[in-house]
Amino acid sequence: MRHGRRVPKLGRTAAHRKALLRNLVTDLLRHERIKTTLPKAKAVKPLAEKMVTLAKRGDLHARRQALAVIRDKGIVHKLFAELVERYAGRTGGYVRILKLGYRRGDNASMALVEMVDAPMKEASSEGE
């Protein structure tokens, strides 16, 4: 039975897990694409989607709720100014998880977490 087991523990204490998820959400919103393990990706997706939903609400209380999770004011400004315009017509599904295979060192399953409709980086021409 799974009674009371709604939070993936990720092998960390509550405070460490909270800090980890805050850092992952902040980096995801900053870079719009991060590479991490699959359990961490699955844990950070709902939190990141909630931040975009708060930004779509757009009032002062929503901004303060976002600042309680994302401690970087610049990232919160980016969320409320740029990202909210990108996802204005979308009702959900702001984050995508792509499985990448397994890490070489410890065989951990890796995933790419990215914001949907993120601008693609141009490939460098070093190989040509």
Q: Please identify, by name, the CATH architecture.
A: Alpha-Beta Complex
Instruction: Work out the helicity level.
Output: 40-55%
- Radius of gyration from the alpha-carbon trace, in angstroms: 16 Å
- Tell me the domain tally: 1
Q: How large is the share of residues in beta strands?
A: 15-25%
Give the helices and strands as they follow along the chain. Answer: HEHHHEE
Q: Which CATH first-tier class would you pick?
A: Alpha Beta
The fold-level CATH name is 50s Ribosomal Protein L17, Chain: A
The H-level CATH homologous superfamily, spelled out, is Ribosomal protein L17
What is the distance, rounded to the nearest whole angstrom, between the alpha carbons of the first and last residues? Answer: 57 Å
| Structural class determined from secondary elements | alpha+beta
Shape: globular
Low-confidence stretches: none
How can the largest sheet be summarized?
3 strands, antiparallel
Number of strands: 3
Q: Which whole number gives the mean pLDDT?
A: 92
Strand order of the largest sheet: 1-3-2
User: What count of helical segments does DSSP give?
Assistant: 4
